[in-house]
Amino acid sequence: MKKITVLLLLIIPGIVLAQKEAKPNINKALTALKSGKLDEAKSIIDAATTYEKTMNDGKTWFYRGVIYGALDTTSSYNATEDLGAVAAASLKKAEELSNGKSATYFVQDNNGGMILYDQAITSISNSYLVKGDKAFNAENFKEALKQFEKGIAFKASKPDTTFYEYAGYAAYNSDERQKTMTYLAKYAELGGRRTQALTMPALLAYEDQNFEAALASAQQVLKIIPNHKDMKAVELNSLIQLKKYDLAAQNLQASVKANPNDAQSLYLLGVLNTELGKMEDAKANFEAALKIQPDYFDAQFNLSNYYLVEIDKTTQAVNALGISAANAKKKQELVQKRVKQSEVAIPYLEKAEKMKIPSKDAEIELLNKLSLLYYYIADDKNNERVTKRLKALGVED
């Protein structure tokens, strides 16, 4: 029995030793990664995050963030879990455990050189940027957005305007409006100053008829770029849509007073006065804008509309007449009146036609109005001319 007892005493300690948890070596995890042993690197670092002597060490979580980030940006490694999300969460925890000393963390490259914390994060996040850019250029916008979002998460402690700008563009092309607005707003908040990125939220909000958001976004841009033409237009039109006429007038009058030679402010004041039915004031505003900028298409086109309003009134009166003899005579008088009104209006439209027209839609609208006036005065030659141009623009009879 004593022999058996001795054997048992020898066996039992062996069993206890076999069950003892092995200490994971985080440096070996990095060595495995550099040697291409990806599964081994992942296994070691995962074990380190649960081992009592390493689980509360910020360096452990920094290594895990680096390893998972490297695995996520390595095309040859496949995983069912979101490696990028784990990497970002690990780096966040590394920051929390570092007591403000995360900048001292480093890994070694293949030549033994030190890669500091910020450098490691930048290196991996740049891989997301490259992958996202490649997907974007291939018009795989959803994949591009995914990669840019990973870059955003990876650099959460030190946000980068580039990722937010590119994520905004990718979201826009992926028809994700809310993400577009969110990322580009963050881009501006972080100090981004690329005009396209700054103005897009206001333009999209206006397009969506979210005039409160469009107004707020436009006014934010105007604090940075005070004379941005599109933003001034969005601000005014949003105020008009919101029926904040007094505020619109105050803003424009202040702008004109501050800069009397600002043709756009005078033009926009004309637009506001047109909306308010102050046609004579509007006419004066458009004429003043054209004195400053003679090739200002919008001002010229809107000036012509001043005359078109009266033509429309005459046409309505013609159409309202009955077929009696008295009405026939009255109709003839009104038709002649419309001819004279058209002859006054046509030169304003023809002048606009010779200017640089900002869009196809504006050109079509202009030509349609000219065609109608040529019809009123029986100018078949010019009517045929603009009809040909309309057909070339894809407009059928």
TrEMBL record:
- Tell whether Zinc is among the UniProt keywords: no
Annotated InterPro entries: TPR-like_helical_dom_sf, TPR_rpt, Ycf3
Which parts are the TPR repeats? 263-296
Annotated keywords: Repeat, Signal, TPR repeat
Q: Which SUPFAM superfamilies match?
A: TPR-like (SSF48452)
Q: Where is the signal peptide?
A: 1-18
| Keyword Cell membrane (UniProt) | no
Q: Provide the protein name.
A: Tetratricopeptide repeat-containing protein
Native source organism of the sequence? Ohtaekwangia koreensis
